[in-house]
Design brief:
Shape: elongated
Mean pLDDT: 87
Structural class: mainly beta
Distance between the termini: 49 Å
Helix content: under 10%
Strand content: 35-45%
Low-confidence stretches: 1-42
Number of strands: 35
Number of helices: 8
Radius of gyration: 29 Å
């Protein structure tokens, strides 16, 4: 079965490159990959792990870090909207966006005698790819930005309000030119809420016959589908005959809005200073607030490409001019349009209604389970070698491990290699017994990608940069380092088994470059191609500086893994190292 996965730039299906998937049996031929066959008999390939020899060298401490409100404004220009249910409970996502004009000091009516709005259309596309165009120009799309994935999707209730809160670019309480951070709980800081937010509510044009070129259905709810919109326009030609033209709009949300608001807010302001430049306009019209609600206690979760110029409000209007020609009045009608974009700042809001409480992790001995949840959820921290570092106390775990592989000087710094590390992997198992306790549990909800990183310095590990499996399709990127979830039967609907992270370069840096044994972080990832971006702030009550990966903020998914103190020893997290040593 093909797997459909999130890709924020190109969402398209591709065949799985099976040669990138490393399983335990792959190491049967490791010797021939590392050593010249002429000298292979003088060396042994061995495996060091908690499950084999030297378990003390592979001691890993894992514990959860629950997050407070997370920063949700960024340069990515995408927005999430809707509802998502999983083992943790429900997350409802809404957002506010500034609106910008396609041109300033616009002319609408000008010298014309009359102006009448024909329609106002709001469009917000999903992320999509085109998979086929048939001989009749019908387009088949692949859309991966609707959760949960399926053949049909539950509708959502959508309210759109004029935003009354002024969104700043810069933080007046920080250093000069420091950008303002906005958080998922509708705050700009622990002392400033984002309010007032809801202004006048925009009215949707009804769709009583449920035509398919609009997203609103006959009940006033937003229907979700992964097909585009076929738009047919009929105009009268010079010969008096009707001319019909067809255009195609990509999958997304497409609504018609009531004219009156836009007539008063935009058209009637022709020549006014509020439309003359960006600053004036952003103060005058502070944007739109999109608020999602459940329909019959269900819904869908959407990722919208609100940074695209296709995400806009377009006002279609007709001007009428009457002039005298040869003693007769001649009336001329001209059809025009004007676009407003969902540009500028965008802030997502998360309303968590969790069924479980994410426990505070034990940094000393580790946890039974690792709780990972995107958005305003949780990440995990990982301490290799019992959290020990060189010469930092009575615990000699790291010192002994390093001396096992390399010769060191009196200060513990590298001198010579004794054993060559060929490959190192950190392996974590999914706690399916815990997941299966929830009625909302579904294998499709399990995140395919997790991201392991340097928690202290908020950057990827060296292995991230040397992994050559780069792709515009995130599911196939960093495939060696950030191994995707291994599922039962290798099916996209199979339950998750384990994640394997190749951290060979990180381990070699500890040995050969005397790097610090820093604490590692682990988080859900919506798109591994985003991990090099600056992390998002986490709001804390004690002033502690905390950040989280931006791709985790964007993802609604969550999972639960076995920790180092799990009751199932066969599923305990462990580090495995394949190494070469001389046969003497």
């Amino acid at each position: 079965m093909k797997k459909k996965k999130i890709a924020l730039n190109i969402f398209a299906l591709a065949l799985i490159v099976t040669s990138f998937i490393a399983c335990d049996s792959d190491f049967n031929n490791l010797e021939s990959d590392v050593l010249n066959s002429d000298v292979a008999t003088n060396f042994n390939i061995k495996k060091l792990s908690e499950l084999e020899s030297n378990p003390e060298f592979s001691e890993v401490i894992t514990y959860s870090q629950a997050l407070g409100p997370v920063q949700t404004n960024s340069s990515l220009n995408l927005s999430t909207l809707g509802l998502y249910d999983d083992v943790y409970g429900r997350v409802t996502s809404s957002f506010v966006s500034q609106v910008t004009l396609s041109s300033y000091s616009p002319t609408f009516q000008g010298s014309a005698d009359e102006l009448a709005i024909d329609s106002v259309v709001l469009t917000m596309p999903y992320f999509y790819g085109v998979t086929d165009v048939d001989e009749d120009n019908n387009i088949t799309y692949n859309v991966d930005s609707i959760f949960p994935d399926g053949d049909t999707y539950n509708p959502i209730k959508l309210h759109i309000y004029e935003n009354n809160y002024f969104i700043r670019d810069f933080d007046p309480n920080a250093e000069f030119n420091d950008a303002q951070a906005y958080f998922s709980n509708k705050t700009a800081s622990t002392s400033e809420s984002i309010s007032p937010l809801e202004g006048s509510e925009l009215i949707f044009v009804e769709n009583p016959t449920n035509v398919n070129y609009l997203s609103v259905n006959q009940f006033g709810n937003i229907k979700i589908n992964n097909q585009g919109f076929k738009l047919t326009t009929t105009t009268e030609g010079e010969d008096g005959e009707d001319n019909t033209s067809t255009t195609y709009a990509p999958p997304g949300i497409r609504l018609k809005l009531d004219h009156d608001f836009w007539q008063e807010k935009i058209i009637d302001k022709e020549g006014d200073a509020v439309l003359s430049n960006a600053n004036n306009f952003l103060e005058y019209f502070r944007g739109l607030y999109f608020k999602a609600e459940a329909v019959n206690n269900t819904g869908s979760h959407l990722i919208l490409n609100t940074g695209s110029t296709n995400a806009n409000i377009t006002i279609y209007y007709t001007t009428t001019t009457t002039e005298e020609e040869d003693g007769e009045d001649v009336t001329t009608e001209e059809q025009k349009s004007f676009a407003l974009y969902l540009g500028g700042n965008k802030i997502n809001f998360f309303d968590n209604n969790f069924d479980i409480t994410i426990p505070e992790g034990d940094a000393t001995v580790g946890d039974e389970r690792i709780y990972l949840k995107g958005g305003e959820g949780s990440v995990a921290k990982i301490k290799l070698f019992n959290g020990d570092d060189l010469n930092d106390g009575d615990d000699q775990t790291f010192d002994d491990w390093k001396n096992f592989f390399v010769e060191t000087d009196a200060d513990g710094n590298f001198k010579n290699i004794k054993k060559l590390v060929n490959e190192a992997n950190l392996v974590l198992y999914v706690d399916q017994d815990y997941l299966n306790q929830s009625d909302a549990d579904s294998p499709e909800n399990e995140p395919d990608r997790l991201y392991i990183y340097d928690f202290k310095n908020q950057v990827p590990l060296t292995d991230f940069y040397v992994d050559g499996t780069n792709s515009s399709l995130p599911y196939y990127s960093k495939y060696n380092h950030l191994g995707p979830l291994q599922r039962e039967g290798d099916e996209s609907t199979g339950e998750g088994i384990k994640y394997k992270f190749r951290i060979t370069e990180h381990i070699n840096n500890l040995l050969l470059k005397d790097s610090t044994n820093v604490e590692l972080g682990l988080a859900v990832s919506l798109n591994v191609n985003l991990e090099e971006l600056v992390q998002q702030k986490v709001q804390t009550t004690d002033g502690t500086e905390l950040t989280t990966p931006i791709s985790s903020v964007l993802s609604p998914r969550g999972t639960v893994l076995h920790g180092n103190n799990t009751g199932d020893d066969s599923k305990r997290v462990y580090l495995e190292i394949y190494y070469t040593e001389p046969n003497n």
